[in-house]
């Protein structure tokens, strides 16, 4: 069956891992304490702080303690949904202030534009929050790329290395799994997507192979019509 939709990862796939670890994470770690302190009573922030208390099993933690927990999670690169949501809020301020610009590889920009024009539906699935995903593509070095995408998925759809997560996304997209091409630089994610019935293609930008999956080092080498 022909590919109708393309689901892509961000880190290491459309965008450099170094942008996340060397730019976004340090920015969040620096600015998150003040942001949380200043906005702790704001509804959307308070909601995430309560989620941190639940996830850390510290229901009575004060704001200062919650900030300590969040900074620890950043250091561990924990894929915690409330952390991702709060990071997204901090990054939004940075993007709006012009202090941050989303990195997207030029070959990814060109391919995404070409695929969109060809009629493929494009979706994103990343461990970063949907808000953070929109910011990377909406405030990218190449301009606003969000019109290219039909939807975004994060860890609220499930862990990226579990097949059920991709089954959940398939239901949401309402396209047969065999007509969805998933792109990632992580073998375990590709394995999970394949187990859910999706077609897969690995990105190894430094060269090499992602075992048992078609592997390329650039979006320019991906032709969805050949899968």
General description of the model:
This protein has helices spanning 17-39, 43-55, 63-76, 81-96, 106-118, 130-138, 163-173, 187-195, and strands at 5-8, 121-125, 151-153, 180-184, 199-203, 215-216. It is an alpha/beta fold and 227 residues long. The chain folds into two domains: 5-16 and 103-226, 3-Layer(aba) Sandwich (Rossmann fold); 19-96, Transcription Termination Factor Rho, Rna-binding Domain, Chain A, Domain 1.
What are its keywords?
227 residues; alpha/beta; Rossmann fold; Transcription Termination Factor Rho, Rna-binding Domain, Chain A, Domain 1; 2 domains; 6-stranded parallel β-sheet; 8 helices; 48% helix; globular
Give the helix/strand layout:
Elements (H helix, E strand, L loop, with lengths): L4 E4 L8 H23 L3 H13 L7 H14 L4 H16 L9 H13 L2 E5 L4 H9 L12 E3 L9 H11 L6 E5 L2 H9 L3 E5 L11 E2 L11
Parallel strand pairs: 1-2, 1-4, 2-3, 4-5, 5-6
Helix pairs in contact: 1-3, 1-4, 2-4, 4-6, 7-8
């Amino acid at each position: 069956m022909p590919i109708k939709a393309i689901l892509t990862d961000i880190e290491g796939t459309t965008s450099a891992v170094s942008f996340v670890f060397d730019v976004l994470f340090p920015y969040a770690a620096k600015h998150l304490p003040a942001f949380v302190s200043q906005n702790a009573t704001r509804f959307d922030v308070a909601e995430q702080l309560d989620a941190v208390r639940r996830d850390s099993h510290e229901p009575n933690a004060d704001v200062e303690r919650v900030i300590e927990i969040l900074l620890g999670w950043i250091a561990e690169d924990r894929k915690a949904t409330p952390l991702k949501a709060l990071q997204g809020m901090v990054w939004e301020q940075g993007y709006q202030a012009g202090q941050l610009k989303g990195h997207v590889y030029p070959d990814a920009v060109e391919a995404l534009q070409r695929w969109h024009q060809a009629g493929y539906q494009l979706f994103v699935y990343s461990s970063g929050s949907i808000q953070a995903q929109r910011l990377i593509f909406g405030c990218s070095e190449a301009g606003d790329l969000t019109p290219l995408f039909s939807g975004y998925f994060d860890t609220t759809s499930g862990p990226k290395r579990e097949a059920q997560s991709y089954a959940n996304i398939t239901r949401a997209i309402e396209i047969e799994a065999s007509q969805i091409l998933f792109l990632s630089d992580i073998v375990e994610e590709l394995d999970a997507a394949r187990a859910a019935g999706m077609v897969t293609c690995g990105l190894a930008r430094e060269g090499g192979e992602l075992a048992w999956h078609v592997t390329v080092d650039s979006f320019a080498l991906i032709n969805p019509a050949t899968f």
